[in-house]
Design goal:
By secondary structure, this protein is α/β, with parallel strands linked by helices. The protein is 39% helix and 18% strand. The protein contains 10 helices and 10 strands. The strands form 2 sheets. It has an 8-stranded parallel β-barrel, surrounded by 5 helices. Helix 4 (81-95) packs parallel to helix 5 and helix 8 (207-215) packs across helix 9.
């Protein structure tokens, strides 16, 4: 795996080649957002919550560079088919676009539901061309594995890190026969991996280490970064230049993740 294939990948579910470091917009400032696009990041995870300050910049980017960007978003809550459709149509109107690349239900089982009604609404939106792919974010790995085998979902947004590697057992094997995309998030385990536990001797992982850990697994198409500004973004991109983890790096990061998880 060379440096280019480590940092970029064509993902069939998106129909586009993406930078494997996706941009989560809940923390980044506008300058950092624009710098990310200039650096080639083209997967944008945007929600209407806590990201209002970026809406003007996002709309400008979508107007100028629509074909190269992959926009992932969804309804704040997704319990009923009708509300899911209304949320999609509202987002299309608010952002001034014709199609949402990834329309997903958030935190399935908590703030959204997988039912005949919600599935039908997602599939109908896809058939109509209003969304290109449908997905979910989900913490329940066992259920995610079942959905990976049996559902029409195109994208799975999963918790995955050195502290929480369970998707390797519960989800990834179920995706072997399909082309569903995997987007990893909480790569730093809510920053817990950036601080060494009391019993650990040596340095903790860096944010760049966390992203490289995720991307070194071939099942992961991209990982979200929650960089807050241009400086943090530059550090993360610099780390990716080191490419996939060595055997030795994999070993110590797994040991460190186990120590952090307790």
């Amino acid at each position: 795996m060379d440096a280019n294939s480590f940092s970029h990948r064509y993902v069939p579910a998106f129909g586009k080649r993406v930078h494997r470091l996706g941009l989560a917009c809940n923390m980044i400032d506008e300058r950092g957002f624009e710098a990310a696009l200039e650096q080639g990041l083209n997967y944008i995870f945007w929600t209407a919550l806590r990201t209002g300050h970026l809406k003007p910049a996002l709309k400008r980017a979508l107007k100028a560079r629509r074909e190269e960007l992959v926009l992932a978003t969804g309804p704040s809550f997704g319990y009923f088919g009708g509300s899911i459709r209304r949320a999609a149509e509202r987002l299309l109107s608010d952002l001034g676009i014709d199609t949402i690349d990834v329309f997903q239900l958030f935190w399935l089982g908590v703030s959204s539901a997988w039912s005949e009604g919600t599935m039908e609404a997602l599939l109908r939106l896809k058939e109509e061309g209003k969304v290109r792919s449908i997905g979910v974010s989900i913490h329940d790995r066992v259920r995610a594995g079942e959905l990976a085998r049996e559902s029409p979902l195109d994208v799975f947004m999963l918790r995955y890190s050195a502290a929480h590697p369970g998707a390797e057992r519960d989800v990834f094997p179920q995706l072997l026969a399909r082309k569903s995309a995997v987007v990893a998030y909480t790569a730093t385990s809510w920053r817990k991996l950036l601080k060494a536990p009391a019993a650990w001797e040596g340095a903790p992982m860096t944010a760049g280490d966390c992203y490289r850990f995720c991307l070194s697994n071939a099942n992961v198409d991209l990982v979200l970064t929650g960089a807050a500004n241009e400086t943090e973004l530059a550090e993360n991109l610099k780390a990716l230049e080191r490419g996939p983890l060595s055997h030795e790096e994999v070993g110590w990061m797994r040991r460190f993740g186990t120590a952090v998880h307790g």
